[in-house]
Design brief:
Helix content: 25-40%
Strand content: 15-25%
Oligomer: single chain
Strand order of the largest sheet: 10-11-12-13-14
CATH architecture of one domain: 3-Layer(aba) Sandwich
CATH topology of one domain: Aminopeptidase
Distance between the termini: 28 Å
Length: about 375
């Protein structure tokens, strides 16, 4: 898994092309708007891609247009070449809209405004009132009507996110930014089972290994119950798209993409790799199945941002810390932009980890690069637990 993700040894991915290659490998990375020391998608890439900056992802999304924002495993960043595979979800949003005939006029009004004025946010278009309806993608009860209209048009694929300012999204017509051969390409997989199979295979590749069990790694694959998931794994095995893997001491079989067999061989040879210290994003694809991470790495992680303060064990926005082939701890950091300071609130080392000079030096080096990633010139040092 570590070799697949480029988290062990020398950096496997570098610069803008490396960031794009990693997202193509995973199929998608999750986006979350919370920015305490970097947003989730940025944090995911900074741990794998040498030379990565926050502008790297923004450029790939909104200047180069090699990526697009859309729900996949929740709201995600997806390679543009996968646009056609999500047509069934855009069609579902269009079909759902038919039960709200009053929306037709509102969408026509919004379309005319954008055609004349360019990219717009919900506060920049004059559609007043509140909306209460369920779209195929989102629930928008009580939103500003302008926001709901724009999000509905985004759900159907008529609009794309043109750019963002902080958490504010600006939308523009898709036809202005997506090449016609991609925008109007037919859906490649017409049968629902084939589409589900494509998405399951993609998720296996995103994590590196997965087991045939209910898993958060399969979130937002519509209709994927236990019976269908079992059929999909069997079909992928029969088609030699995946291979099984037994792990000593664990009962469940794991499965990996057949194309990754060389990585399994390399891991089995236990070839020495240069250890790296990295901070992992809370919604990182590496952590999509936290029960599996617990089984394999004996590391338990909960994102406590939505946990009531009195029930938190660690902190609001805590990042797992990897060194070599171990999770060695977790860290809570805050970027204070005004003073250009990275504040380390705490670092907790796992009880099994001996804090050697080598590990402490690697952690310190990672904190320095993490500060630079966040545009910070100073670090308020931590007291660790």
């Amino acid at each position: 898994m570590l070799l697949k993700h480029g988290l062990l040894g020398e950096y496997k991915f570098s610069g803008k092309n490396g960031a794009l290659d990693f997202i193509r490998q995973t199929g998608c990375i999750q986006f979350d708007p919370v920015d305490i020391c970097g947003r989730n998608a940025e944090l995911t890439l900074q741990s794998r891609v040498s030379g990565f900056t926050k502008n790297t992802l923004s450029d790939l999304l909104y200047i180069d247009r090699k990526l697009f924002d859309y729900p996949d495993k929740n709201l995600s960043v997806i390679p543009l070449e996968d646009w056609s595979y999500f047509e069934r979800y855009r069609k579902a949003a269009r079909d759902n809209m038919k039960q709200y005939p009053e929306m037709k006029l509102l969408i026509k009004r919004a379309r005319s405004f954008i055609e004349a004025n360019g990219a717009v946010c919900s506060g920049g278009i004059n559609i007043k009132g509140d909306s209460y309806w369920r779209s195929a993608i989102h629930w928008s009860a009580g939103n500003k009507l302008s926001r709901s209209v724009l999000e509905q048009m985004y759900s159907t694929g008529e609009l794309v996110i043109h750019h963002k300012k902080g958490t504010r999204k600006y939308y523009d017509l898709s036809v202005r930014h997506i090449p016609e051969n991609i925008l109007n390409a037919p859906e490649p997989l017409h049968e629902e089972f084939d589409h589900q199979k494509w998405r399951v295979l993609r998720r296996i590749g995103a994590v590196g290994l997965l087991w045939n069990r209910p898993s958060d790694a399969f979130l937002n694959i519509w209709g994927l119950d236990n019976e269908i998931r079992g059929r999909i794994f069997k079909a992928l095995l029969d088609e030699k798209m995946i291979m099984p893997l037994a792990v000593e001491g664990l009962h469940d079989l794991f499965y990996f993409k057949t194309e990754d067999a060389a990585l399994i061989d390399a891991a089995a040879r236990n070839t020495e790799s240069l250890p790296r210290c990295e901070l992992i994003a809370p919604l990182d694809c590496f952590l999509w199945d936290r029960k599996m991470i617990k089984a394999i790495f004996n590391y338990e992680y909960t994102w406590e941002i939505y946990t009531p303060p009195q029930k938190r064990k660690y902190g609001v926005y805590v990042l797992p810390l990897i060194y070599g082939d171990n999770f060695i701890g977790r860290l809570e950091a805050i970027c204070e932009a005004k003073t250009e300071t990275l504040i380390i609130k705490n670092i907790w080392f796992e009880e099994s980890i001996k804090q050697t000079r080598k590990i402490q030096k690697a952690v310190e080096k990672r904190l320095e690069s993490f500060a630079a990633f966040n545009g910070c010139k100073k670090i308020n040092r931590y007291s660790h637990s």
